[in-house]
Amino acid sequence: MSGQETGARRPRARLLSVLLILLCGAIAVISSTQTWLTVSLTGSAAHTLTVAGSVAVPVLTPLGLAVLALGAALSIVGTVLRYAFGILSVAIAVVVGSLTAVVAFTHPVSAVARTVTDATGITGNSAIAPLIASISASPWPVVTLVAMAALAFAGVFVLVTARTWRSTGRRYRTAAAPASPASGPLDAIDSWDDLSRGQDPTG
Asked: Is 92 in contact with 66 (CB distance < 8 Å)?
């Protein structure tokens, strides 16, 4: 593979990683506001309740926002933080993915307990369980699970390619311009420019 081809792939690896992580974070945040579970109650309290993703998996919203922040910062950090962010991405994907899988495939009472308690005033999983006739899931838990799998892939991809990314730190540094001899009295702007370059405006 030629050096030109390798250089062309470096920005692609960075761009792909950042966009994929941002997409996964956005899906997690959006999913947290959607209906994950529908609960049908029995007896005198018989009616249907909906449970949002943020209730079924309370960490979904904060960790989704963390993923968005992580993806945004990933485009400008150095090599060491790239590895740290890659590990964090995988860790978040594992945590959220495991919790989501439980909700998606087992529909636990604990995931709907808060909503049932708000509607009936009854607390405790053992007391709530007899009130539940059925719990059905929407597609959103599965969508979130897929997003977490993609996030884990993105984290691993960052770990594999982080060393090949070009450093972007220089573009965010203030370049020290060479001092030019003053041709006349310095005004306030000139003095401020000298201070920003670490020079003594009175010299």
From this structure: yes
